[in-house]
Each structure stands twice: as structure tokens, then as C-alpha cells.
Amino acid sequence: MRWNVAVCGLMGLLAQSATAITMDIDDTQSVKDAAATIAYGMLKYYTGNNTGDTPGNLPDPYYWWEAGAMFGAMVDYWWLTGDTSYVEVTTQAIVHQAGDARDFNPANQSRTSSNDDVGFWTITAMMAAEDAYPDPPEDQPQWLALVQAVFNQMASRWDDLNCGGGLRWAINDFQTGKDYKNSISNGIFFNLGARLARFTGNSSYGEWASRTWDWERSINLITDEYDVKDGAHFDVTTHVCRNDSGPHVWSYNIGVFLQGAAFMYNISTGTEQETWKTRVDGLLGAVEAKFLTNDTKIIKEWYCESGFSNNGHPYQCNIDQQTFKGYLLRWLSSTSQVAPYTYERINPWIRATAAAAVATCTGPVGAAAPQVDSGGIQPGFKGIDGTACGFKWTETFDGWAGVGAQMNALSAVMYTLTHTGVGNVTKGPVTAAQGGTSKGDPGAGVTDPASKGGLASLKAITMADRVGAGIVTAILAISIVGGSVFLTI
């Protein structure tokens, strides 16, 4: 079946200017029209429901996880605008990639996907549950149960032997990343734990979230300044841990912890809530210090857009990194909902970014970002001529068109609608007790017949774990040698 856009949506798009996207940020319909044009251009890259292709997949050189992130953007697009044009194709993609085991481990990805790859698809399912996105038929995987299945499997992979805890990047020992504990994998686990705790009311998920935060702090992946470093390698023989990711601080690492911390703030009270507020504020401070332009407060990808040198040349974002700041926008918007006191700080950033992003959407049909590293050449833009969006938002269209650029711009534009009450937005993400319809399965993803309880049957968090995290912190504090941190477990 070939990709088709709903007739009513297409007619509205064709009626717009073919030279640029005009948007009045204070006019809800104007914002929705701009978002519709950008979403149309993004989905024109999608080939997953062409005859002979696999639902949920983007064409080369885009990776599987990015497709999962893209459909997450489309879930929120429905939620924010009320546009149902893409519900069928979005649901088909997510359900197909859930796989036979209903855990986002489909046969076409089972040997190559990592914890963060699976995690991005799972975040999309979590968004669907929180947005009260239309549920699949009862005989198909359900949004909440999918999230619980992956969360249970991630919890079972918690690795105390190396670096004192955390998840490895790789799921399998034969994969690249088996010796790396990266912040995005652990950040997604933290994020899902916080959101499941709120959605289900089960505090055990929140305990896992707290444990993950404490571990990230214990090896200084979350610094005293609330920068979030990319990760730490370890020696698989000696288990020596090296926090060696250098200056790489990416917007999505801060964003995924920011949203999770905001959810933990939302479900906490008293002293505990104050602790999470301090963390939310610290992460927002790190965002402002590195990921906003100094004067105009427009979101940027710090490492790619600040002139850092790569063998004498400015560092350029690869095909993955070109998507990161869109996720930061997604998580900033959500933070302003579940931690409402942050709205006055965050909203001006989103509005400034939206105006700047849409101004770059002037590129022609055929525009494509250049190849960076070994990422391959991205296919040319196939949307409406004159509406391809650029990557950098501090200049005119820079030629860097692609799925990432479209998804980033879509996020910037549509999240200005978060607090307007349009579309399907109510007062924020729903819960099982208030507005949620998605069905769960706490034991999903558990393959051991003796472990029927899912989360409850996994390794308990004990006082020894909490004390252990403190010991790891102490060891790190006294083990700084020549600017590098070494930890022996």
C-alpha cells in the first residue's frame, strides 16, 4: 500500500505558500497549519508502508531508533493539533515494531538494537499512553504493557559488577557498546521509571528511577553543575570504570533526565519534592548555560553549533546528533506541564525557538544534508517546495534538510500549543486513574516462568544499594588522576 495523505489535510497544505511557511505564533490555527506542513514534509521521507517495505522503518541511512522517535513526534502531533491524518500509519508502525514478543525486539532488529534504540520506541509507547492516543485493537500490543515489558527487561539488565550499577549501551555481548554505560540508555530507564510511577501509581518504578539517578551522580555522569556526560567505559576483565566521554554534552541527555526529574517532582511531596525541584532547576540551568543562544534564547546543539574543532574544522553533527535538540524541546514542554512552576522560564525559550525554526523552512524539493562521518547521504526532501527546514536556527536555511531537521522544527512549532488547550490536550499527561485508557501488564517482558510478578520479582533495592552508591561517590572523589576518573569495583 502506497503512502497517502488525508485529502482534507493535503488540500489545506497545497493552499499555502509554496515559497515558505508563514506563522503567527499567537494564532492557534496558524501554528497548527505550520505544524501540518512540516509534518507532511517529514512523513514524505517514510517508506515503511510502501509495497514490500517494513512498517516502522525509515530508508537508509536513517537508523531504526530514529524512526521510533519520529513516530513519537507524530503521537504528540495528534495530541496537540487534533489532526487524525496520520493516526493509522503511526499506529501501524508502532505495533509492527513491537515484535512478536511485544517488547520492541522485532526479528529485523534483535541482533543490532541497543538499550537506547529500544528505549526510544518505548518512550513513544509511553507518550501514547499518557496522551490517551487511540488504543490498538485488543488482540494487538497495548501501549502501557509495551512500556512495562521493556522496563522489566531493562531492570533485569542492571549491572552492579561494572561501574557499580547502570545499564550497558549494548544488550548483547557481541555488540559494540558492551563495555560502555551511556547516559541516554540509563536516562531512558530513569525517565520511564518516573513516568510509569506516575501513570500506574506503583512506587516501585519510582524507586528504580531514584536508584538510576543516584548511580549517574555517583560516577559523575551527572556533574555538580548538572551537565550530563555521555557515558563511561569499563574494562570487561578488571571492571575498572573510566568516566572518559570528554567534553561531549548532548541536549538529549540533559533533556531525558530533566523530564524524568520533573515527573519525580510531580509525584513527590515535602522534602523529597524539594530535592527533585533542586534537580529540575539545576538541569534547567545547564540547559540555559549550554543549549540556548546567549541573547535570543533559541535552542541549539551546543557541541555542533559552538565552533568546536574536529581536526581543525568545526565539529558537524552526524545523522543521529541532528535530531537531539528536538527531543530536548519535547521534554522541556512536558516539564512545564508536570512541574508547572517551570512554565514561565521554559515557555519563552520554546516560543523564541519556534519562530526561529519556522523561518528556516524555505528549502527546495531535493534539498539534503551533506554526509557526515559514515552516516551516508540523506534522501532529498519531497515535501512542498520551499518548505524544507534547516538544522541551525540562528541563520537562514542552511541546506541541512532531512528527517532530523523536519522533526526538530515540528517539535519547536507544535510545542507552543502545549498550554493552549487545543487538540486533545487537557491539563497534562493522563494517568491510569485519570483519563488513561491503555491497558497494562506488570509482568510483561518476563520470560522466567518462576517470575510472574514482573517488576516485583526483580532485584529489590536495598539499603546496601543506597549505601553502595555513596561509597562509589567517595571513591570517585579521591580517584582523580591526571584529569581522568578511575573506579575499581
From TrEMBL:
<keyword id="KW-0472">Membrane</keyword>
<dbReference type="GO" id="GO:0008496">
    <property type="term" value="F:mannan endo-1,6-alpha-mannosidase activity"/>
</dbReference>
<keyword id="KW-0812">Transmembrane</keyword>
<dbReference type="GO" id="GO:0012505">
    <property type="term" value="C:endomembrane system"/>
</dbReference>
<keyword id="KW-0732">Signal</keyword>
<dbReference type="InterPro" id="IPR008928">
    <property type="entry name" value="6-hairpin_glycosidase_sf"/>
</dbReference>
<dbReference type="GO" id="GO:0009272">
    <property type="term" value="P:fungal-type cell wall biogenesis"/>
</dbReference>
<dbReference type="Pfam" id="PF03663">
    <property type="entry name" value="Glyco_hydro_76"/>
</dbReference>
<keyword id="KW-0326">Glycosidase</keyword>
<dbReference type="GO" id="GO:0016052">
    <property type="term" value="P:carbohydrate catabolic process"/>
</dbReference>
<keyword id="KW-1133">Transmembrane helix</keyword>
<protein>
    <recommendedName>
        <fullName>Mannan endo-1,6-alpha-mannosidase</fullName>
        <ecNumber>3.2.1.101</ecNumber>
    </recommendedName>
</protein>
<keyword id="KW-0378">Hydrolase</keyword>
<dbReference type="InterPro" id="IPR005198">
    <property type="entry name" value="Glyco_hydro_76"/>
</dbReference>
<feature type="transmembrane region" description="Helical">
    <location>
        <begin position="467"/>
        <end position="487"/>
    </location>
</feature>
<feature type="signal peptide">
    <location>
        <begin position="1"/>
        <end position="20"/>
    </location>
</feature>
<keyword id="KW-0325">Glycoprotein</keyword>
<dbReference type="InterPro" id="IPR014480">
    <property type="entry name" value="Mannan-1_6-alpha_mannosidase"/>
</dbReference>
<comment type="similarity">
    <text>Belongs to the glycosyl hydrolase 76 family.</text>
</comment>
